Amino acid sequence: MKTIRFLILFTGILSMIFVSSCKKDKDTNPNNDAPAYQMQKVDIPEAMAQSNDPGAKQAVYYLNMVNAFSRYNSMMTPPKSAFVSRLKGGGGPWVYTWDVNDGEKNNYTVTLKITETANAYHWEMTLDGLVSGIELHNFIFITAELDKDETKGSFTVYDFEEMGTVFMTMDWHQSDGNYYFTVEFPEEFLANIVVNSDGSGSIEGKDWMNGQYVLVYRAEWDASGHGEYWYYENGEVINHGSW
After folding, report:
1. Host H or E run for residue 146
2. At 200, phi and psi to the nearest 5?
3. What span, in angstroms and rounded, lies between the C-alpha atoms of 62 and 43?
4. How far is it, in rounded angstroms, from Cα 88 to Cα 233?
5. DSSP 6
6. How many angstroms separate the CA atoms of 174 and 42, rounded?
7. Are the C-beta atoms of residues 131 and 104 closer than 8 Å to each other?
8. Is there a contact between 166 and 173 (Cβ–Cβ < 8 Å)?
């Protein structure tokens, strides 16, 4: 299943990138002023997080999926010693490179380019070398965007095992303190998540069936974390409960 493969592959590679970056952070560069990628972390209400109800656990799973990406903000921030170039006088683009060498199957160079437009920043991470035993040549692994006011962003991971295809995407935006997330594994899974400023929210989970996304799970919860859920099959409710 693509989502399971993602958790293993993506977490493992970015962990190696992060460890390598930390080792180089001992060297400082006073001109390292590149913008940092920031993605919102979701606070899960305690009543929801502590519930043993399967429907509640399903909702927590989706929210933890969002939080998994927020943990990688630091991985899109390069080590200071990896600074390569920028335009004179400040501003982008910023280009960083550093090496990862972790055993026989992982020996590659990471290049992170950060560019700037009037309203947003854009990140592009490429890998060159041997990654999980696969030889890559300047492969675009991750792209990300963030509005300068930090109210809207996106994150895309590309699949180097199925070269050139999109592995997953996350898009999010903020409005009046409420956050809206869309997570998609193309032609497999789609989730729309709303987290309101008071802690209440809702989720719709959809599976890819016969050429389209079909609703299979829905949940709503209040600010205290108590909620209700529905499971669907062929458009009909097959299970319903509350926690």
Report:
1. strand 134-147
2. -75, 170
3. 12
4. 59
5. H
6. 12
7. no
8. no
Q: How many residues does the chain have?
A: 243
pLDDT in tens, 97-147: 888 887 778 888 989 999 999 999 999 999 999 988 889 999 999 999 999
Residue 201 tokens read as 């929210």
Question: 85: exposed, middle or buried (C-beta count within 10 Å: 0-12, 13-18, 19+)?
Answer: exposed
For 68, other C-beta atoms within 10 Å of its C-beta total 15
By CB atoms closer than 10 A (0-12, 13-18, 19+), residue 172 is buried
Q: How many CB atoms lie within 10 A of CB 54?
A: 12
CA angle at residue 212 from 231 to 57, to 5 degrees?
30
Q: Which two tokens mark 227?
A: 């909620």
**What's the mean per-residue pLDDT of the chain?**
83
133 three-class SS = coil
b/e for 205-238, b at 16 or more Cβ within 10 A?
Answer: bbeeeeeebebbbbbbbbeebebbbbbbeeeeee
How far is it, in rounded angstroms, from Cα 37 to Cα 43? 19
Using a cut of 0.90, tell me whether the model's pTM lies above it. Answer: no
Among all chains, which residue has been given the structure tokens 């990896």?
Answer: 82
**What distance in Å separates the CA atoms of residue 39 and residue 146, rounded to the nearest whole number?**
8
* Residue 142 contacts residue 166 (beta carbons within 8 Å): no
CA distance 193 to 39: 15
CA within 13 Å, CB half, 233? 3
DSSP state of 105: T
Cβ-based burial of 43 (10 A; exposed 0-12, middle 13-18, buried ≥19): exposed
**Tens of pLDDT, residues 200-226:** 999 999 999 999 999 999 999 999 999
